[in-house]
Structures are given as C-alpha cells and as structure tokens.
Amino acid sequence: MEYSEEKIGKPSSISADIKRFSDELPTSVRQDPVIKRLLGKLPDDIADSYSEQQLQGLRVALGDRTWGKHFIDKRGTFAITFVRWRFYYVFLLGKNRRAYTRREKHASLLMFMGLILLFLCISVLLGLLALYLLKSALGIDLLEGTSLGVWDWFKGLG
User: Is residue 56 packed enough to be buried (19+ CB in 10 Å), middle (13-18) or exposed (0-12)?
Assistant: First the structure.
C-alpha cells in the first residue's frame, strides 16, 4: 500500500487503488488471470453481469495473490480412529518472496553462517578421515604403538 505525504501512516483509499489499477491496466480487466479464474467459476449470466469497475474493485480486493503459487503445495485432511475430530495438514515449499524484517534478516544471516560453518566442519572431518585411511592403507605409522582403531573398523566393513 502507498501512503500519501499528508496522511502519513494512513493507507490510501480503495477508490484511489481502483483508479490507479485501472490506469495501469492497458486492456480489459476481464483479461486479468485472477479475474478470468474467478469468472470461470461463475455461471455465464452472473459473470457477464459484472461491470468493469466492479471487476476492478474485486481485483484490488483480491490483491496480487502471487504468494499463492508454491513449488510444492500439498494439503489434505485425515481422521484418527476413535477421535471425533478431523485434522488437516499443509506442506508448502517454494521461494520466499516476502520482505524480511531486520530481525528476520539477522536470524537468516546467522543461520546461513551456521550452515556454512557446519559444512566446513563436516568437510574437514571427512577429509581428515580420508587422509587417515589413506595413511593406514599405505602402512605409514606416524606415532609408534598408537591407533585410533578406524583402520581396523574400516577393514571390517568389507
């Protein structure tokens, strides 16, 4: 929503939004995908009864609705035996298109850094394990009489 300079903190009126939407729209609002889908669900006589201005008002009220498209969108219901209620589940997966708050940006950065650190630690540990197994396979003994037992465990796998 846009805000006027005179009324900071108060959203612009719906009428202004409808006018701005109609000015931005080069063709009929009936060509808009959201309106097409809405009118497609109605009987033809009812769908034809809406004026362009009414459809523009509906389009503004419905909003962009691009948030409703997800890569994975799985929804369903289930019932548990001997329980009177039915339960629903929703699993959504897709690109986040929301604007982050400062707190969310900070948490996202910390999570990202944590994942990078975890990846590096796992990579280093796997690299050290590979080097240790290679050293043991070649028969190189760096410290006489000491063993971690990894080589014996690895030989026992095969």
Answer: buried
Return the closest-CA partner of residue 124 out of 132, 135, 136. 132
- Residue 121 — φ and ψ, nearest 5°? -60, -45
Strand ranges, E, within 44-139 = 72-79, 86-93
Angle, vertex CA 91, rays to CA 113 and CA 39, nearest 5: 120
Tell me what the mean pLDDT of segment 133-154 comes to.
Answer: 84
Tell the residue number behind the tokens 């290679």, with chain if given: 134
Comparing CA positions, the residue from 73, 62, 72, 1 lying closest to residue 36 is 62
19 class by beta-carbon count within 10 Å (0-12 exposed, 13-18 middle, 19+ buried): middle
* CA separation for the pair 54, 20 (Å, rounded): 14
Which range, of 4-8, 50-54, 59-63, 82-86, averages the lowest pLDDT?
4-8
What is the separation of C-alpha 34 from the centre of its chain, rounded to a whole number of angstroms?
21
| Distance of alpha carbon 41 from alpha carbon 138, whole angstroms | 73
- Amino acid identity at 71: F
* Res. 15: pLDDT tops 70: no
Residues facing 78 on adjacent strands: 87
Partners of residue 98 on adjacent β-strands: none
d(CA 60, CA 20): 10
